[in-house]
């Protein structure tokens, strides 16, 4: 079992930035971020391997979001720049043993943190 606790969500104006953090109870997993807007399916945002050497991004965030991790602190980050109203969603941290670029690679989920981008 892995416990995941997200933080860093909030309200930001369009064009602004936020950094999400996720602290895991264990670090030897691939980690990722997903998001879910009201009335929409959960969407893959970003993922990275346990070593951090391989990163993956969803098309809608590529070039604007950056995922990173500090295994010494069991923490994964999502730096979000150039935020737009369509980025408004609940953001979930996830961990798993599988392929970090797809939802099927994840087994454990955090409770989520709300990100709201105003126009």
Note the topology:
Elements (H helix, E strand, L loop, with lengths): L3 E4 L2 E4 L4 E7 L5 E7 L6 E6 L6 E3 L7 E6 L4 E6 L8 E8 L11 E2 L3 E6 L1
Parallel strand pairs: 2-11
Antiparallel strand pairs: 1-3, 3-8, 4-5, 4-9, 5-6, 7-8, 9-10, 9-11
What labels describe this entry?
119 residues, 0% helix, mainly beta, globular, four-stranded antiparallel beta sheet, seven-stranded mixed beta sheet
Task: Explain what you see.
By secondary structure, the chain is mainly β. Helix content is 0%, strand content 50%. The chain contains no helices and eleven strands. Strands 2, 4, 5, 6, 9, 10 and 11 form a seven-stranded mixed sheet that branches. A four-stranded antiparallel sheet has the order 1-3-8-7, with no helix packed on it. A hairpin with a 6-residue loop joins β4 and β5.
Distance N to C terminus: 39 Å
| Element pattern in H and E | EEEEEEEEEEE
Number of strands: 11
On the 0 to 100 scale, the average pLDDT is: 95
Biggest sheet: strands, sense, closure? 7 strands, mixed
Total of helices: 0
Structural class of the secondary elements?
mainly beta
Quote the beta fraction: over 45%
Low-confidence regions:
none
Which percent range fits the helix content? under 10%
What's the alpha carbon Rg, rounded to whole Å? 13 Å
Overall body shape: globular
Structure described in brief:
This protein has 119 residues and is an all-beta fold. The chain is built from no helices and eleven strands.
């Amino acid at each position: 079992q892995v416990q995941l606790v997200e933080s860093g969500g909030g309200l930001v104006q369009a064009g602004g930035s936020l950094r999400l953090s996720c602290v895991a109870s264990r670090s030897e997993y691939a980690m990722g971020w997903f998001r879910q807007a009201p009335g929409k399916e959960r969407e893959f945002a970003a993922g990275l391997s346990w070593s951090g050497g391989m990163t993956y991004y969803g098309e809608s965030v590529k070039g604007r979001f950056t995922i990173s991790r500090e295994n010494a602190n069991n923490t994964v980050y999502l730096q979000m720049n150039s935020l737009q109203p369509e980025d408004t969603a609940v953001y979930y941290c996830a961990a798993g043993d599988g392929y970090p670029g797809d939802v099927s690679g994840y087994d454990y989920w955090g409770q989520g943190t709300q990100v709201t981008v105003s126009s």
